[in-house]
Design a protein that fits this description.
By secondary structure, this protein is an alpha/beta fold. Helix content is 26%, strand content 16%. The strands form 10 sheets. Strands 5-4-25-24-23-6-7 form a 7-stranded mixed sheet, with helices on both faces. A 6-stranded mixed β-barrel has the order 29-33-30-32-31-34. Helix 10 (229-242) packs parallel to helix 16 (399-412). The mean pLDDT is 95. It binds iron/sulfur cluster.
């Protein structure tokens, strides 16, 4: 009998329930084996489109979430000072009545005084909509802390992005280039993909200062200096342009390469596209020797040289500008090599390898298709070069432009959604011009009324910013203001500081969900906890009220006034929606649900149920009936019956009264049952002719309209050049009716360049680089996801302490050896830790695992737990503000998107005595009442149940 047969003969439980994992952001399908009311075993669902049965250590350890002594048991009301951990248990009625009182008063007077921010929440289609119903624009999730640079750069360039809105063509790619990818995002899907590449012998090149995880199995590791990725990409582009190894036919047809850009220095139209009377961008047709609609089917465009438009203005095609910029000697491999820490010859070789894979290993699929201009193609031509990027690019203050540079590189190679290249995950691509704008203008915020739009959106020009007449931000986090115009995901990292300072205005209630803002989700943890507890002259807290929902006793819980305990992911309904961050893939759309496979054994409620309940108690219009009764019984009821537009709801599968419709259709009362019967997911495979060139594939675009993904079947032009950025830049230069305040004018004019630029990361530019000679970065270990792993008995056995990893040569030059104690000193703070010598790191960079350390007392860990005594957090050394200089001080963030720039950190290391005080240490937290006793060891029978 084989092992598989033996396992099948002795199943670990007596019942199997399908659901979706939530031990990280990948949302794999899982089979939960249950026995005697407990979980015995979790395995991957082989049919699921995300993981195809693959499980990781985190996912398998989901069992231990159910046994965690850190689980909150009951609503809590603070009775001691904030941060003391002194609470009393209260009933849900009291908790909800209190929250309704607090929030109801705010809504009647000024809804902006509620700031509602969520962490790694996978229900943002609900939470954002709820904020909008409440009437506050002060809403976002944690994307501004995580990867908004990557998302914004992609969406403003190609109408999709790496990770959630795109993936490599794992089956066909012949060269794979990763930028700044650690193991914590896109976990199982990327591992499955990498395994496919290894089997096919595809070359994997990883650009990363640290050689762990994916970099460790790459064929080639380029240990780049942090924050210089954009320069490296420019050098690759320089080489490809110099060698004339770009896909001219692709960029002429599908990008804006031929679009004419007006050259009129100093005038309001400088740098904008030349357009006809109907607003169509113009290209210069070489046959007619005249400007024509750039998207006309028969245009043979000019791609270089200046032209004179009929009205006398001068213009040049985008490709001309692009070549002018990147062929400049400053971007030659020899010019950037030292700064990037990568040899010029290596850069030249990588450029040649990219070109060889793209053009000499061209793929031609025998799949006829028709493009949006009506041209029939007999084959799908592919450039089999794939790229993927993540936080190593994103978390720098120059990350937006670095990520846009990667997309420009892809476009020049013809490697966007072609066979073998990076592909859109359905329902992307989406056109930027059709995207919603953020709501929050003065006329959109009315006491007692919903916001007249979503709090988050896509500004295209200064008129879309949420600012007062004098340029003052209208949002608490200053998103969509001149300080961070394209802050698509908000600036969660600035919320506590701004609320504490009353800048731009004081708020009443900070409502947080699953966001450990008092620990690893804060820059400068000690300062953040001080702000959470700071009082004014009247003795009242400067942030008057804090409501927090979490399933576990995380560090943030101790700072809440009211705690609403959440369930685990195995105890609730949930929906992974196309309205939010879907699990679709390149072959077609997909979404999924979670179902409760366990009943909570404590007095906790799913946060989404609580939000629906609170909304009804507050009388939010879409959450009550005409008679004022609750419209939805709970979140499960909302998932089935809510319609965002007619026929479009949270789930796309089995719509219509009988489940007969795909994506668009009336609510189906049996929809959840259909999902459960299908393993808790739905997927729809696109026909072969729709699988590539989605941005210009007529069949795909028409199908996408029918499925409600886009409004019109118009081509989605890929943008080498961003006219939207130029709109802002022109304002910085003094043009237009909406103007930045004087102190931000130069910043806007500098960073809103329509072609990608590179600049020294802002903190690095502002400090003495000789005094802080090392870069410092963090990443999460493969078995951990944010701070969740540290109360999980199985995952704690993999990592419960961390070291600062230092290059062997660097350490030896400082006279340091393995396990020596050091102080990591930044311009803001110092942190004490021990080091470990390694070879796989850029010599000018130190790094560590993030979020392994825990504050003593938090998570109901033993006072002497390794997480509190032998692990350390680098966050206290990171500032949320740039060093003093320009006043007022700017956020330590990307000036385009507001992305937290926590990878810009510069430090030095100094030897320390083992018993030296650690100035970053915070006093232990008290464990609140009601938590389960902490078992000295996990009983064997518990582990088996
Ligand atoms: S990759 Fe993430 S979602 Fe998938 S099994 Fe692992 S923890 Fe769960």
């Amino acid at each position: 009998m084989s092992k598989v047969e033996a396992a099948a003969a002795h199943p670990p439980g007596d019942r199997v329930a399908y659901t979706t994992c939530y031990m990280c952001a990948c949302r794999c399908g899982i089979k939960v084996h249950l026995k005697d009311g407990g979980v015995r075993y979790i395995e991957g669902n082989r049919d699921h489109p995300v993981n195809r049965g693959v499980m990781c250590a985190k996912g398998a350890a989901g069992i231990m979430q159910q046994h965690s002594p850190a689980r909150l048991m009951k609503p809590l009301l603070r009775v001691g000072p904030r941060g003391s951990g002194e609470f009393r248990e209260i009933e849900w009625d009291e908790a909800l009545a209190l929250a309704t009182d607090w929030l109801g008063a705010i809504r009647k007077s000024d809804p902006r005084k509620l700031a509602f921010f969520t962490g790694r929440d996978q229900s943002q289609a609900l939470t954002g909509w709820w904020a909008s119903q409440f009437g506050t624009p002060n809403y976002a999730a944690h994307g501004g802390f995580c990867s908004v640079n990557m998302a914004a750069a992609g969406l403003y360039s190609v109408g999709g992005s790496f990770w959630e809105f795109g993936e490599p063509d794992w089956e066909r790619t012949r060269y794979f280039l990763l930028f700044g990818v650690a193991e914590d995002h896109d976990s199982n899907p990327i591992k499955i993909g990498l395994a496919k590449l290894r089997r096919r012998g595809v070359k994997i090149v990883s650009v990363n200062p640290v050689r762990t995880g994916y970099s460790a199995i790459a064929d080639e590791w380029l240990g780049i200096r942090p924050g210089t990725d954009g320069l490296l990409v420019f050098a690759l582009i320089h080489e490809l342009l110099r060698l004339e190894r770009i896909d001219v036919a692709f960029i002429a047809r599908y990008t804006d390469a031929s679009w004419l850009v007006i050259r009129n220095p100093g005038q309001a139209d400088d740098g904008l596209f030349a357009r006809d009377a109907e607003g169509h961008a113009l290209a210069w047709d070489t046959r007619r020797d005249a400007p024509v609609d750039a998207q006309a089917a028969d245009v043979v465009p000019r791609l270089a040289g200046e032209v004179v438009l009929p009205d006398g203005r001068r213009a040049v095609p985008v490709l001309h500008l692009l070549a002018e910029r990147y062929l400049d000697a400053q971007y030659a491999p020899d010019a950037v090599a030292e700064r990037c820490g990568i040899a010029a010859e290596t850069i030249r070789r990588i450029a040649r390898e990219l070109a060889t894979a793209a053009f000499e290993q061209e793929i031609a699929l025998d799949v006829p298709w028709t493009d949006s201009a009506g041209r029939r193609h007999t084959k799908m031509i592919g450039r089999p070069v794939s790229m993927h990027a993540m936080r190593g690019i994103s978390a720098h203050s120059n990350g937006f432009h670095a990520c846009r540079a990667i997309h420009v590189l892809q476009m020049l190679l013809g490697a966007i959604d072609t066979p073998g290249a990076w592909r859109y995950k359905s329902p992307y691509p989406r056109p930027l011009t059709a995207a919603q704008k953020p709501a929050g203008h003065a006329h959109q915020v009315t006491p007692g009324q919903p916001l007249s739009g979503p709090p988050l959106g896509f500004p295209l020009a200064p008129e879309d910013l949420l600012v007062e007449r004098d340029g003052t931000p209208r949002r608490l986090d200053k998103a969509f203001s001149w300080e961070a115009p394209l802050a698509l995901h908000g600036l969660m990292h600035m919320v506590i500081r701004n609320a504490w300072a009353g800048d731009p205005y004081p708020i009443d209630t900070l409502f947080l969900y699953m966001a450990n803002m008092a620990w690893n989700s804060a820059m400068n943890t000690a300062e953040t906890t001080r702000m959470l507890t700071d009082k004014g002259a009247d003795g009242a807290y400067k942030i008057p009220r804090i409501i927090y929902s979490d399933a576990f006793y995380s560090e943030m819980v101790a700072y809440a006034d009211l705690v609403l305990p959440d369930t685990t992911y195995l105890e609730r309904w949930d929906c992974i929606s196309l309205l939010d961050r879907p699990i679709g893939h390149a072959e077609g759309p997909a979404d999924a649900i979670r179902q409760p496979v366990l009943k909570p054994d404590r007095d906790v409620r799913p946060f989404q149920d609580v939000l629906i309940d609170l909304g009804a108690r507050l009388g939010l219009p879409a959450l009550v009936t005409a008679g004022g009764k609750p419209r939805y019984r709970d979140y499960a009821d909302y998932i089935v019956r809510h319609e965002r537009k007619p026929g479009i709801g949270p789930l796309a599968g089995w719509r219509g009264a009988q489940g007969e419709h795909v994506a668009v259709g009336a609510p189906n009362p049996q929809q959840l049952e259909r999902y459960v019967a299908n393993g808790c997911f739905w997927t729809h495979r696109l026909p072969a002719e729709q699988l590539y060139y989605k941005f210009a594939n007529r069949a795909y675009l028409e199908g996408a309209v029918q499925m409600g993904f886009i409004e019109r079947a118009r081509p989605i032009v890929l943008h080498l050049y961003s006219e939207e950025l130029q709109n802002f830049r022109l304002a910085g230069l003094g043009h237009g009716s909406v103007q930045p305040p004087e102190h931000l004018r130069r910043r806007i004019a500098t960073y809103f360049d329509p072609l990608p630029i590179w600049y020294v990361p802002l903190e690095e530019a502002a400090i003495d680089r000789d005094a802080f000679s090392l870069h410092a970065v963090t990443q999460r270990p493969m078995p951990m996801y944010h701070s969740w792993g540290s109360q999980n008995a199985w995952l704690r056995q993999i990592y419960n302490q961390n070291r600062l990893y230092v290059h062997r040569r660097t350490a030896e030059a400082l006279g340091l050896g393995d396990d020596d104690w050091v102080h990591v000193v930044s311009a803001h703070h110092r942190v004490k830790c021990r080091i470990r010598l390694v070879d796989g790191v850029n010599p000018d960079t130190v790094w560590t695992w993030n979020a392994v350390a825990k504050r003593a007392g938090a998570w109901n860990l033993a006072p002497d737990a390794a997480e509190a005594t032998r692990a350390f957090l680098l966050n206290p050394a990171i500032s949320d503000l740039l060093p003093p200089g320009d006043e007022p001080r700017h956020a330590n963030a990307d000036p385009v998107t507001g992305q937290a720039a926590w990878y810009d950190l510069r430090v030095r290391i100094e030897p320390a005595e083992a018993d030296a005080a650690d100035s970053a240490a915070l006093p232990p937290l008290r464990v609140p009442p009601g938590l389960a006793p902490r078992p000295p060891r996990l009983p064997r029978r518990e582990a088996r149940r």
